[in-house]
């Protein structure tokens, strides 16, 4: 199975692009963010994370992801611990997803927000970077986070978008409306189709 990785900066629209590409290319997609969300609800992960971050337990003993995010984006050492703990688990799930789909699909998409930061060890045929201006990222993040201070912290913790763009096989600039993005993704899908034949 040929593999396309979708990455980009925070609040650039990676998930939307991955969903649209999956529809346009008629292929399955896997999201590392969704895998993390599932993992953070599983017993052994909850226990390990709450040992390191006891203050992020909610009233039902689950992980409050917003509280966890506030801590790890403010404290790089604690973020590294969490990444070192979660990334092997995520990689194993991605490899299982590839094994489950490679006999029925000639192409697959994997959304990997930290593709270059963790040197994602899965062979890919095309890397797609979703990008937008830093002003747009800040605006989207401030809406999502409810605070521009938290948005600044999250952006500061990321690899510069310019570096991701320099490594990309294909860049989708997501600055406009959903209609514009849909048209850009359709063009990108044609380019991916040509690169993966």
Summarize the structure.
This protein has one domain: P-loop containing nucleotide triphosphate hydrolases (Rossmann fold), CATH 3.40.50.300. The protein contains nine helices and five strands; from the N terminus they run βαβααααββαααβα.
3D architecture notes:
The protein is α/β, with parallel strands linked by helices and 197 residues long. Helices cover 57% and strands 13% of the residues. It has one domain (2-189): 3-Layer(aba) Sandwich (Rossmann fold). It has helices spanning 14-25, 32-39, 43-52, 65-74, 76-101, 134-145, 148-156, 161-167, 178-195; strands spanning 2-8, 29-31, 107-111, 126-131, 170-173. Helix 1 crosses helix 9, helix 2 (32-39) packs across helix 5 and helix 4 (65-74) packs across helix 5 (76-101).
Tags for this model:
alpha/beta, 197 residues, 5 strands, Rossmann fold
Flag low-confidence runs.
none
Strands of the widest sheet, in order across it, are 2-3-1-4-5
Stated plainly, the CATH topology is called Rossmann fold
Largest sheet: 5 strands, parallel
Oligomeric status of the shown chains?
Answer: single chain
- CATH homologous superfamily classification: P-loop containing nucleotide triphosphate hydrolases
Total number of helices: 9
What's the alpha carbon Rg, rounded to whole Å?
17 Å
């Amino acid at each position: 199975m040929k593999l396309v990785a979708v990455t980009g900066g925070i609040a650039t629209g990676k998930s939307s692009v991955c969903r649209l590409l999956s529809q346009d290319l008629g292929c399955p997609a896997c999201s590392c963010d969704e895998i993390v969300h599932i993992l953070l609800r599983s017993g052994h992960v909850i226990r390990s994370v709450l040992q390191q971050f006891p203050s992020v337990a909610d009233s039902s003993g689950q992980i409050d992801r917003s509280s966890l995010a506030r801590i790890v984006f403010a404290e790089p050492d604690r973020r590294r611990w969490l990444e070192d703990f979660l990334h092997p688990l995520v990689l194993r799930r991605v490899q299982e997803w590839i094994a489950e789909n490679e006999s029925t699909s000639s192409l697959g998409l994997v959304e990997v927000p930290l593709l270059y930061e963790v040197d994602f060890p899965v062979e890919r045929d095309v890397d797609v970077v979703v990008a937008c201006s830093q002003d747009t990222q800040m605006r989207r993040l401030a809406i999502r986070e409810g605070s521009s201070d938290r948005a600044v912290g999250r952006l500061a913790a990321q690899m510069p978008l310019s570096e991701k763009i320099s490594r990309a096989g294909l860049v989708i600039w997501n600055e406009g409306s959903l209609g514009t993005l849909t048209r850009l993704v359709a063009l990108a899908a044609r380019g991916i189709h040509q690169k993966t034949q």
